[in-house]
Amino acid sequence: MTQIGKAISRLEGWQKVTGSAKYAGDYNVPDLLYGYVVNSTITKGHIISIDTSDALALPGVIKVFTHQNRPGLAWFDIMYTDMDAPPGTVFKPLHDNEIKYNGQPVALIVAERFEIAREASALIKIKYEEMHFETRLDRNIEKGRNAKKGLATALKPPPPKPKGDFSLAYDESPFKVATEYRHSTEHHNPMELFATTTVYEGDGKLTIYDKTQGTINSQIYVANIFGLHFKDVRVLAPFVGGGFGSGLRPQYQLFFSVMAALELKRNVRVTLDRKQMYSFGHRPQVIQKLRFAAETNGKLTALSHLALSETSQFEDYAELVAEWSHKLYPANNTLFSYKLVPLDLYTPIDMRAPGGSTALHAIECTMDELAYQLKMDPLELRLKNYAEIDPSTDKPFTSKALKDCYLKAAEKFGWNERNPEPGSMTHGNKLIGYGMATGIWDAYQFPARVEIGVNAEGKLLVNNATTDIGTGTLTVMTQIAADQFGLSLDEVTFGYGDSKKPFSMFQGGSAMTASTGSAIVIAANVLKKKLLDKAKEITNSPLKDAELKDVMFTHGRMYLKNQVEVYVMLTDIVQANKGKTIKTTNLGAPHMFDLRKYSKMTHSAAFVEVEIDKDLKTITVTRAVTAVAAGKIINPKTATSQITGSMVWGISKALYEETILDENLGKYMNMNLGEYHIPVHADIKQLEVIFVEEKDELINELGVKGVGEIGLVAIPAAIANAIFHATGKRINNLPIHFDELL
Ligand code: MOS
């Protein structure tokens, strides 16, 4: 009876589809007050005055908080940031009268009803003094500078140092391509809006339902900035309606909800609307310049990737952009750089394969151009430059089955039917294009603590503070835990989404299965030892001389290997423990020191077919196949969902999503789902996912690398390459608009 590897449907699926799942804004606690936030309409400057009298006169309005009457908090004088904060000074709502970006929250109205609070927001009169601002990356290129270093940069180091002599090698190589790629801003737009319901329990105690990707991150934030004891702050997020990175940092609705609850000693909910979701973090604008050179046989000789990205004036948000080509391809001469330009916008925040998806688009399109120049098949060029060890660090991979990804996906797709000549393949009045690209993503693993125990009914109780942002975490963790003791899924309860449970980092980076999953295995092994010790104490115990390595667990029994008749029931062991749950709490730390000698990566290969109307140039992605190498797949069903969803993001990034900035106003203009385009069902055709076998005995206890973002990274380039194949046109910005093909 093994649960790992089974295609199991989400255990909480019925709660989601029947509407019984409660999200942060759904907790209708008694005597609830509602907050509505007012946002700045200018981009940079100062508030001269705020007149709240009309708003306060509206029946049902309880209070209006502004920078003039907000409570004094230690936070406003100390340097406190959240777990995912980049180096710099975190933005503090209502700190003073300074406006740092358009949409900055400047007031909170608290009323008896949400509608009253929103109505009152229109009655607040604010006078501003406006100052000159800069919001365009391409107009401020000369301001590019290195990113500051800080705690959060541990996961985002600067790009590798140069090798050899790039300029010389590039000049002397017979084949070379120089490209420039531009990406505009994107916003996460999870379905669930940002909301926090704070229950004021008295005695400085709070129970907080927050829309977050990290319950403990929100707990630490609240405790620190409001000067509360950690144990008095409980943050719950049992259901999260998508995050995509937007919930990695505590957002301002949390601050406002808690501030109002503490000040008014009442229960307070603050919900942000769709437009307000555009005021606290985005995928940054990026400009990339690449130069790749090769020998006549296609072997790369020189790689250069220079990236310029935006950040805010107060924090240095960095992502990994410039290094990915050299994690995929060897070359003796390299030159990489990553620079930031501070602009008068809010700090960017990780969004769906941050950095990697932007970088891989540029890299894999540049490789495609090189393949055309060499008159070589794009897949053959990748295979010719296949790296058996990580060229950027000279470290071996813990495992790498990328070659299988290429070959299996190519076969499934029918890549060998491709005529390489651009515009040569047609179907009626449609141009057909085939494109391919490579994907790579870090196999992250974070420290996690897991509590695991057996209760009097013989049920396994497992606890960790992680959220499940829609990825299938509950199901996957239940499967992993069940297998440790040979139990069925209904004999296991996985408790999560609660800051009171043992430590978890925020849920991001496709790291949770490796992090909490491995911690479950480690904790289970400790519990087994504890159970055996207790089993030995039972009178006439049949296991009194047994060693742990000879003991098996299944169906609620522990027994001697090869002697199923020699067993002790787990319920009897708990009985002997006076019926009290036998449990243990252990840290599953990534064995960072052992793994320092290795490169830990997931890989993918994507093959895409586009159909382009010959006259109208409308683009449809008709087929896409992605093969993924990500170690062991715990649940093929939820993993396939992860990759399929990621492929949809890839289509979205390539053809639909962009936040449009009005440079005269310094303001985003399409802050709604009507004008911020994402694909609808009719835009999504045939998507296929293949998981190639990849046995990884080094990476962690489970051999898992995690899936999610790896499904996205290759898709935009594969689509752009397919569009080139169909039309002969290279469009070097995303999203690609069909009118650019006219
Ligand atoms: Mo993410 S951008 O891994 O939440």
Describe the structure.
With 742 residues, the protein is α+β, with helices and mostly antiparallel strands. The chain has three domains: 16-132 and 190-273, Alpha-Beta Complex (Aldehyde Oxidoreductase, domain 3); 141-186 and 282-444 and 597-741, Aldehyde Oxidoreductase, domain 4 (2-Layer Sandwich); 446-589, Aldehyde oxidase/xanthine dehydrogenase, molybdopterin binding domain (Aldehyde Oxidoreductase, domain 4). Helices cover 24% and strands 26% of the residues. It has 16 helices and 31 strands. The strands form eight sheets. Strands 3-5-1-11-8-9-10 form a seven-stranded mixed β-sheet. It has a five-stranded mixed β-sheet with strand order 14-13-12-7-31, with helices on both faces. Helix 11 (473-484) packs parallel to helix 12. The chain is globular and about 80 Å long. Residues 213, 243-245, 248, 350-352, 354, 508-509 line the site of dioxothiomolybdenum(VI) ion (MOS).
